[in-house]
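Workshop exercise sheet. Pairs work together: one partner reads the sequence aloud, the other fills in the structure field after running the prediction. Swap roles for the next sheet.
Pair: D.N. / O.F.
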Amino acid sequence: MVCAHILVAEDNVHQAELVRRYLEHDGHSVVVVHDGRAAIDETRRRNPDLLVLDVMMPLVDGIDVMRAIRTESDVPIVLLTARSTEDDVLLGFDLGADDYITKPFRPRQMVARVRTILRRTGRARETNATVLKVGDLTIDPIRHEVRIKNELVGLTPAEFRLLAKMAAQPQRVFTREQLLEDGFITARTVDVHMMKLRRKIEQDPRRPERLLTVYGIGYKLV
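Structure field:
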């Protein structure tokens, strides 16, 4: 299995979440932004392994985003667009796109093409995606599943990312800032996800035994 850090720049929230879910299910870590300015800033800040870039975006369109990025980075870029004329496709490739996917598209085909580009460019990392176990809690990154005593627990992608990150280092105290690195917007958003996680993995969310608050610092999984 291969994994990569992928930045998705797509202004359509529903479309962006669909792309995120499919890429995460394939084992990748994904951050989403919704405008071209943020796409440039996040590419510079995170140095992703691959960028999925919508052409039609606010503030800065995808073509200009690619022009800016190509002056300083060779990150693989997959363009998403409703434009399908030959001139549009040729312009994308001339500016340095690695692939061009026309909307509407099938998400699984998009994932397969991303996987191919990652292997071809050497950006992918082979991983055994080790199953994580903390007490009677099991996190399977390949299947994107969480179980308690073999009972499946339904988590959102954001909840899964948080739990998997903490399960990789049980007993470690994570600050909110360290958890924000996974693409959450505010510290308050982290707290909300933790509250929802407790409802799903704790027998009594008001008296947590697994996901503990370390007051004044953050959280830890025990």
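Discussion prompt: The first strand starts at residue 2 and ends at 3. What would you look at next?
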